[in-house]
């Protein structure tokens, strides 16, 4: 930095005063998180009372995110910050060399969750990046929402090893499967 740049910077910053410690807001404070969650639930209740058809059937997950249950035909899409647009597009279109595939059809929820976590771990060990997980659409589920699809959606969003995922193109399973991009090892 040149002397001219330093003097310009100092001139612009002359009136700036540090915040007092009492003025700072801790974003990791549990009471603030609970307050935000309560505000979000109240906002959703107001929408529902105003005639909107939004469901309040949200699940709170470990990252303080709400994951809305999805329907059988609803497409999934998730990407962490910093994922390139080209990679997201490749996931949506299925334009990548598939390196591994996991089919969860017919599994119980508990077995499917264990198999999914083991699959991700094995893919990381083998340094695989592009994978497909077939969860089905949940037509034979006793519940209103597809159980396996919602579990996969929640688990992949929580995983620190998943950079992005998207419902597969129609030719590869559509809303019954997801293409996922794993972090490099």
Task: Write structural notes for this entry.
By secondary structure, the protein is α+β, with helices and mostly antiparallel strands. 37% of the residues lie in helices and 15% in strands. It has 5 helices and 7 strands, in the order H-H-E-E-E-H-E-H-E-H-E-E. The chain has helices at 3-12, 30-49, 85-93, 109-125, 147-158, and strands at residues 59-60, 66-67, 77-79, 100-103, 130-134, 162-167, 177-182. The strands form 2 sheets. It has a 5-stranded mixed β-sheet with strand order 3-6-7-5-4, with helices on both faces. Strand 1 (59-60) and strand 2 (66-67) form a beta hairpin. Helix 4 (109-125) packs parallel to helix 5 (147-158). The chain is extended. The two termini are 37 Å apart. Residues 51-64 have low confidence and may be disordered.
Overall body shape: extended
Structural class: alpha+beta
Distance between the termini: 37 Å
The strands making up the biggest β-sheet line up spatially as 3-6-7-5-4
Overall strand count? 7
What percentage of the residues does DSSP assign to strands (E)? 15-25%
* Radius of gyration using CA atoms only: 22 Å
Ordered list of secondary-structure elements with their pairings:
Elements: H1 3-12, H2 30-49, E1 59-60, E2 66-67, E3 77-79, H3 85-93, E4 100-103, H4 109-125, E5 130-134, H5 147-158, E6 162-167, E7 177-182
Parallel strand pairs: 4-5
Antiparallel strand pairs: 1-2, 3-6, 5-7, 6-7
Helix pairs in contact: 4-5
State the gist of this model.
The protein is α+β, with helices and mostly antiparallel strands.
Key terms:
single chain, 185 residues, alpha+beta, five-stranded mixed sheet, two-stranded antiparallel sheet, 5 helices, extended
């Amino acid at each position: 930095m040149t002397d001219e740049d330093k003097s310009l910077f100092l001139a612009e910053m002359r009136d700036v005063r540090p915040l007092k410690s009492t003025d700072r807001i801790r974003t990791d404070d549990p009471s603030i998180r609970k307050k935000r969650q309560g505000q979000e639930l109240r906002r959703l209740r107001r929408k529902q009372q105003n005639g909107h058809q939004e469901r309040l059937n949200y699940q709170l997950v470990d990252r303080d995110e709400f994951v809305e249950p999805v329907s059988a035909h609803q497409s999934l899409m998730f990407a962490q910050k910093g994922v390139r647009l080209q990679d997201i597009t490749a996931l949506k279109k299925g334009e990548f060399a598939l390196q591994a595939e996991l089919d969860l059809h017919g599994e119980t929820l508990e077995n499917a969750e264990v198999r999914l976590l083991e699959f991700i771990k094995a893919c990381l060990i083998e340094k695989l990046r592009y994978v497909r997980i077939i969860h089905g659409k949940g037509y034979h589920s006793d519940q209103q929402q597809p159980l396996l699809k919602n579990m996969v959606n929640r688990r992949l969003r929580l995983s620190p090893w998943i950079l992005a995922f998207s419902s597969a193109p129609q030719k590869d399973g559509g809303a019954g499967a997801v293409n996922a991009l794993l972090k490099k090892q």
